[in-house]
């Protein structure tokens, strides 16, 4: 039996769902998901663990015409910290405000030495990705959607990189899709805490579907080096990025859970242990659940190999 087939069978046998997270020294991340309709709302408020909510509304507008709405919001952690929403409405609410789905994620990060290096600053690569999308599904569609990502410099409130994707569809504006994908190279101080803020929001007034998502990737520049005591060192080998609880450091080889640069039985064993313990290192989808989708994601990364 080959390793991948054996891994698939072993992982499908795991049905443990847990909510514990391993401490990483920066306190808890904050997650909020909410859906608000004329009929009521479902709001998780800010929680220290990933969360998601949904809500459906069926009613009528002022003149008595039927209107329905279904929406959901997800604020996720794990290996994919992400704010994500989607919603769909049919009919016209006949109002200046519509049902809203919103997700927010707030967490901290910092760079720390692994082997006692005396360097006081480290080069990072930061990528922020966001998308806002609207599709009209009937006559006179009206909706708005936005995605926002902000990464602040450690030790200050200044923004290192930030962007907003905003889509709007109505009788005047027909901007149905907007996105951003930005990468910056920057240098930050060691030991200081920075923050990441993610937000996705959608509002439907009439006959439309909305979706929005925002997520970041922060890594130590893998090609950057420095000289110390006559030797050359790679920053990525001497420092690591720590995050708030329930956020897991992204790596260029996500299936390499042992960090030795190779994919083998020991990475499989590490995933099985983390999955069974409900450790967020195994939450590859970032949805606060441990399911077949995390298994499938791990298998995909494992099969792709390390770069």
Would you kindly provide a written description of the structure presented here, covering whatever features stand out?
With 307 residues, this protein is mainly beta. 13% of the residues lie in helices and 49% in strands. The strands form two sheets. Strands 1, 2, 3, 4, 5, 6, 7, 8, 9, 10, 11, 12 and 15 form a 13-stranded antiparallel sheet that branches. Mean pLDDT is 87; it is low at 8-24.
Topology, please?
Blueprint (H helix, E strand, L loop, with lengths): L2 H10 L17 E8 L2 E4 L7 E10 L5 E11 L5 E11 L7 E14 L7 E16 L5 E11 L6 E11 L4 E2 L1 E13 L4 E27 L4 E4 L2 E4 H4 E5 L21 H13 L14 H13 L3
Antiparallel strand pairs: 1-2, 1-6, 3-4, 4-5, 5-12, 6-12, 6-15, 7-11, 7-12, 8-9, 8-12, 9-10, 13-14
Helix pairs in contact: 1-4
